[in-house]
Amino acid sequence: MGCGASVKKKGDGDRQAPAEARTISAEDEEYDRQEMAKIHSIGSRRRDSFSSASANEDDIKTYIFPAFEKAAEANERIAAALIGHDKMKILGVDKLSKELLDQMVGAFQPRCVVQGEDVITQGDKGDRLYVIDEGNFDIFVARKTESGEPGEPIKVANFLPGFVFGELALLYDAPRAATVRCATVDARLWSLDREPFQMALKRSGLTKIEQYTGWLTAVDILKVLNLHEIGCLADACEEVLLEKDEVLMTQGEVGDAFYILQEGQCGAFIIDGGIEKIVKTYEKQGDYFGELALINNAPRKATVKATADAVVLKVEKDKFDNLMGPLLERLKAQAETYPQYADL
Ligand code: CMP
Ligand code: CMP
Predict the structure, then answer these.
(1) Which residue among 280, 287, 343 is best mutated to probe the pocket of ligand 2, counting the most ligand atoms within 8 A of its Cβ?
(2) Is 313 in contact with 242 (CB distance < 8 Å)?
(3) What does the DSSP assignment read for 259-294?
(4) How far apart are CA 135 and CA 114, in angstroms?
(5) Which of ligand 1's atoms lies nearest the C-alpha of 156?
(6) What is the pLDDT of residue 85?
(7) Which residue from 152, 164, 193, 333 puts its CA 20 to 30 A from 63's CA?
(8) What is the per-residue pLDDT across 57-87, written as a single tens digit (0 to 9) for each?
């Protein structure tokens, strides 16, 4: 498969960020934090883009992925790198069907690189992402100075085999955010073009609608909705990923959305006499919260946060008003059972 070097098996575990592999951890942490925040909203945008993409649904369904023949173990390592990558997870790559993941992995092609070669140059347009097969790569970032000019590039990280890079420009359609330079005598990468990357994500968006529709029909409170209405609800949902302790809504705030728990755990907390008390836990798929502010046009009655990593489906206020009409009475009756709610 090229480059003259043999394919060496690597542990899947080294795919992302062993602590010693990263050179400037504070920078990286900040970068990761900002990127996670952006990707959370990308996850949402991706759900949105499903609706707007319905016009070319056929293109998405009939798209033929390019296939580059590779050794089975190379495919396995690429798949492991993608599945383990935080940002790819948030996009749902770890939940792709086996068929779709195989197609995405099959579309990766090999590329050989020599020491000092810039695979990516900050500011360029991005058209592919990479998985490192062999060798190390330095990441340099030139931050803007006060005058707005780019400053000196500073090395912020060193990436090892199994790492993924070059995803940001593809995800945000933005210029490359860093320069990526080969730091070893030679190295080998796998690269994936923008089109198969996006097509796989879009196609997974299509199947997700079907997935949501499936489990939403089983949710107690939604049982009065017919299949058409459930389908509209599934289409209106945006997936939001929460890390443990992440706050989704704060008591007293204006409410702009309703949420249904898909995975993980959340809790509702009320401040009473200056002390925060948990008043309800959400652990079951289909548990919901954030309806009171929308129904009553009132501030949030509680703070809801993730008590473990969680995935929730978000339904924005205008969509909630359109879709949840048939449920209003049931939601109100249910709210009467909330502990302390009557006293508030
Ligand atoms: P992209 O902007 O497409 O191209 C440069 C890549 O470098 C970027 O995607 C990330 O994958 C990677 N990268 C790693 N660390 C950083 C960082 N601190 N800032 C920006 N990009 C980084
Ligand atoms: P909302 O007021 O929009 O935002 C906070 C949410 O917490 C609220 O809707 C309910 O869904 C949920 N909640 C859970 N338990 C309670 C409670 N005891 N009192 C008020 N809200 C609660």
Answers:
(1) 280
(2) no
(3) EEEEES-EEEEEEETTEEEEEEEE-STT-EE--HHH
(4) 9
(5) 18
(6) 85
(7) 164
(8) 788 889 999 999 999 999 999 999 999 887 7
- With beta carbons less than 8 A apart as the criterion, state whether 187 and 132 touch: yes
89-148 residue pLDDT tens: 767 788 788 999 999 999 999 999 999 999 999 999 999 999 999 999 999 999 877 787
Residue 48 belongs to what H/E stretch?
A: helix 25-53
Distance CA 16, CA 106 (A): 21
Alpha carbon separation from 332 to 89, 270, 316 (Å, rounded): 36, 19, 18
Kindly state the DSSP code that residue 288 receives in the 8-state scheme: E
Closest Cα partner for 66 from 112, 104, 110?
A: 104
Which residue shows structure tokens 């990436």?
159
Q: Is 146 exposed, middle or buried (0-12, 13-18, 19+ CB in 10 A)?
A: exposed
Task: Report the nearest-CA residue for atom 9 of ligand 2.
Answer: 290
Amino acid at 228: H
Structure confidence by residue, pLDDT tens digits, 194-210: 999 989 988 887 666 66
Question: Separation of 171 CA from ligand 1 center, angstroms?
Answer: 12
